[in-house]
Amino acid sequence: MTSMRARCATGLALCLMLAVGPAWAQQETGGMQSGGTAYYTFARPGQNTIEVLVLGGQSGIYEVGENINMGQLVALAGGGRGGGRTNVTVRHFRLKDGKRRKILDQDLDEFTERAQYPSLQDGDVIRLETSQGWGWREVLQITTAVTSLTFTVLRIFDIGR
To answer: Is residue 60 part of a domain?
Structure first.
């Protein structure tokens, strides 16, 4: 027979795992900094260029020809990667009066249906944000974890015997 102290310690350990585990699992993977910023050039020799910072997709500083529009830049940065349950939001920021202001905030589906894409200026920032919905796999994983933890707690504290 195990003592009440051992059961309480085990129960406390399980509660801590339940509280800390999900927060630890949600930490971003692949968020390591490589020590530098990627720099991409998409312009013909001698062509006037502008620099645009892209965050998300294939992040980096993009030096593009002045004739490149925002739709083409999003395509170069791989912003359309998603599919399935992934939602992509396109945000465009521009420096005005010494402050960076949002001039576009649109879902990628709406963005692709535009008749005309916004022009780009030197120093613009494009942010491509992705969010993913819940699928049957995520629901099954959570249900399995909760069920397993419930049976473990019931077994440790001899509940229902």
So the answer is: yes
